[in-house]
Amino acid sequence: MFGGKNILLGITGGIAAYKTTFLVRLLIKAGADVKVVLTESAGSFVSPLTLATLSKNPVLTSFVKEEEHITDWNNHVELGLWADLMLIAPATANTLSKMANGVCDNLLLAVYLSAKCPVFFAPAMDLDMYQHPSTQVSFEKLRSFGNVIIPATSGELASGLYGEGRMAEPEDIIVFIQEHLAQGLPLHNKKVLVTAGPTYEAIDPVRFIGNHSSGLMGYEIAKASADLGAQVILVSGPSHLNVTHPAINLQRVVSAEQMYHTAHEHFPETDIAVCAAAVSDYRPRTVADQKIKKEENELTLELVKNKDILLSLGEQKKDQYLVGFALETENEIENAKKKLKKKNLDAIVLNSLNDTGAGFGKSTNKITFIDKNLNLTAFDVKEKSVVASDILKEIINRIHA
Ligand code: CTP
Question: Residues 129-155: what's their mean pLDDT?
Answer without folding.
Answer: 97
